[in-house]
Amino acid sequence: MASAVFLIVLALPLVSSQSYHWGACPDPKFLGTWYEIEKLPASFERGKCIEAKYAVRTDGTIQVLNSQFYFSYFTPYAPYWVVTTDYSTVAVVYSCTDILHVFHVDYAWILGRSRFIDPKTVQYAKQLLAGEGVDIYRMKATDQMGCMN
User: Fold this and answer.
1) What is the three-state SS of the chain?
2) Residues 144, 116: Cα–Cα separation, whole Å
3) For position 75, what pLDDT does the model report?
4) pLDDT score for 61
5) Could you tell me the pTM of the whole model?
6) Which residues of the chain have pLDDT under 50?
7) Lower Cβ count inside 10 Å, N or C end of the chain?
8) Is beta strand 103-112 parallel, antiparallel or unpaired with respect to 32-39?
9) What are the two backbone dihedrals, phi and then psi, of residue 136, each rounded to the nearest 5 degrees?
10) Does residue 81 contact residue 71 with C-beta atoms inside 8 Å?
11) Can you tell me the distance from the alpha carbon of 39 to that of 34, in angstroms, rounded to the nearest whole number?
12) What sign does the CA torsion over 39, 118, 29, 18 have?
C-alpha cells in the first residue's frame, strides 16, 4: 500500500497540467461497423452495400476494413478526419488529397451505424460539411438496398 501511494505521489507532477481520471483508458467508441449513407463520388467507390469495420490492431493502431459490392482494388492513401460523431448513430468523415500544391481532391462521407438513418440527420451532416467549406452539391446517396444482414 505504501508503494502505491509513493508511485501516485511521484506521478502527480507529471499529470498536474493534464486531465486525468481514475481507472484505465476507455475503449475507442468509434470501433465496429459503420455503413456509408452518402459520399462525394470517388473513383474507388462505385459499388453498393458499402460498409467499414473499425478494429484495434495488436500494436494499438486502428484497422479499417472497407467492403462493398463491385469494389475497386485501387484505394489511395489519404488522411482521414472524423469531423463529428455521436458514436451511436452518425459520423461525418473528411479526407483531402493535395495534388502538387496546385489543386486538391475532397472526399467526404456520412456514415451510420445502420444502413438507413433519419433524413434530418443526413441534412445536418451535410450542413456541417458545407460549414467546413466542402462542396456538398455532388454528394451521392449510397445504395444500401438488398444488402446482407
Assistant:
1) CHHHHHHHHHHHHHHCCCCCCCCCCCCCCCCEEEEEEEECCECCECCEEEEEEEEECCCCCEEEEEEEECCCCCCCCCCCEEEEECCCCEEEEEEEEEECCCEEEEEEEEEECCCCCCHHHHHHHHHHHHHCCCCHHHCEECCCCCCCC
2) 8
3) 56
4) 82
5) 0.76
6) 71-72
7) N
8) antiparallel
9) -90, 0
10) no
11) 13
12) positive
Report the residue count for the chain: 149
Alpha carbon distance, N-terminus to C-terminus of the chain: 51
Question: 76: Cβ–Cβ under 8 A, 6 or more apart, which residues?
Answer: 44, 97
Task: Give the residue from 91, 73, 74 showing the smallest Cα distance to 82.
Answer: 91
Owner of C-alpha cell 481532391: 105
CATH class for the domain made up of 28-141: mainly beta
Domain ranges of the chain: 28-141
